[in-house]
Amino acid sequence: MKSPLEGPVGLKRIWWGFFFSWFCICLYACKEDAPFIHSIDPRIGMSGEILTIAGSGFGDEQHESYITIAGIPPTGSSYLTWQDERITVKIPALGGFGLVYVHREGKKSNPFLFSNRAAMPDLVQNQVLGLAPHISSIKPESGSIGTLITIQGSGFGASRERSGVFFTWNAEPPPTVPEVPYEPEVVEVFEMEFGYELWSEREIRLRIPDGAVNGNILVETPGGSSKPVFFTITDKPGTKTFKEKRSYTIAYTVDIQVQEAEVPNTLYLWIPHPVSSASQRNVTLLSRNRDPFAEHYQGTTLFQLTDLAANTSARISLSYLVDVYALETTLKSQSIRQIGDSPIPTVYTLPSPLIPSDNPEIAAVANAIIGKERNPYEKARKLYEWLIQEGGIQGRPLHNSALDALGQKQADAYSGVLLFCALARAVAIPAIPVAGVLINRARISSPHYWAEFWIAGFGWIPLDPYLGAGLAPEDFNVHEEPAVYYFGNLDNQRITFSRGQEVLSQMDPRGRITVRNRDYALQNLWEEAIGGIASYSSLWSDITITGMYIQ
Fold first, then answer.
1. Fewer CB atoms inside 10 A, N or C side of the chain?
2. Which fold has domain 339-498?
């Protein structure tokens, strides 16, 4: 008796069975998505240990697929198993931190952060302060930008002083060879975001800072660094990409010439320095010719010159190194949710002399521009587009206020930014003016102003109405489609000296103050003369770019 697979009919059945299997495989392959990582174990390990990656879409066999950890692909012999939902591999030699990806048929998975235990700071014994800080718990274990969280543990210190909490921050890797590890950095909680609410020996309450990503949290004190604890950033309606790092070295001076004076006398100088933010980092003092009276005093360094004699001069010189990243944002406005209890929406919608958001004319124009729009991101976009199209932004300085700019339909970089902030605050969008310098191809700096607005759960979003209107200093690298680019994105050809206006207090109510409007920082005090200084002059130099390094 013949088998049902023998003969012409059987051959047809075999052929159709083969064809059907081949068709199903091809159909599945065509629909197959990129590989997806659900988890890695361990999240913190060392070179030579076994890393297990769980997920889907890895493929039943490795073939040409591979993984990378911090940009490093393990050698072929390092792979132990490769299955569609599970990969085991020996961890290669790494730096401190790195993102894990699975690469298959030209597609790359979502990332997971891996930390090298060998690079973690160990608990250290401090002879004065005792043990380094220790984190016992973080509640909640995940949260969105601006959310209040509580860290419990020990060794934090009775007050913050020189201590801080640091979250993982990550930039787009530079275009180096894949074998070079590129380690995520950290971003500290920011004062201007009201980041620290409580600091005690056993408990810290803080808000998640702008720029934080999934990764480790560290507490650093003069006694040392805590062991890292993994934390997940949730509910982000979009992404921020920090890229194209530029390192600048800068120098600037203040020269004082005293004409008439009698002792006792005192001259105070509030000298701005580059500020830290998610996109401007690693601000480092390189040199200065005298010690300050107060360090990091509300965004400035306060210097005190005492008992100056007539017909004498004094100079203060400073030099800094600062890293600046271009920032690009991608945001799904429909995913924005009003979450968290940050005071930012309250504080940065208040009116001020520079930002008259409570003016009825400002409010009427702002409401007319946004119409029925209720999404904060789309409201900000409407205000920005109105400003660059109908706000009359000029390339020449006009020396007018935000309210004047609205009435005259003419604004320069300074008044245009203040007008945007006033319009935004009038319709409940937290917004701040930002001051600094632009840097052209000849490395010449010029004072400039732009703005940022806050989206709950996402952080600060930059915009530059002046450059968005197609205006720029001579010999400046302007982006294509500037009107589109400069809403939500920012170049790396600038250095920031103030975010928001720094409101400083006089040292003596009888002091004679000097204000420098429209300079490279927004602050209400620059100089204060007390006592017997009858006549003096001051010369504040431009910001000189002494070096620029591109990565």
1. N
2. C8orf32 fold (3.10.620)
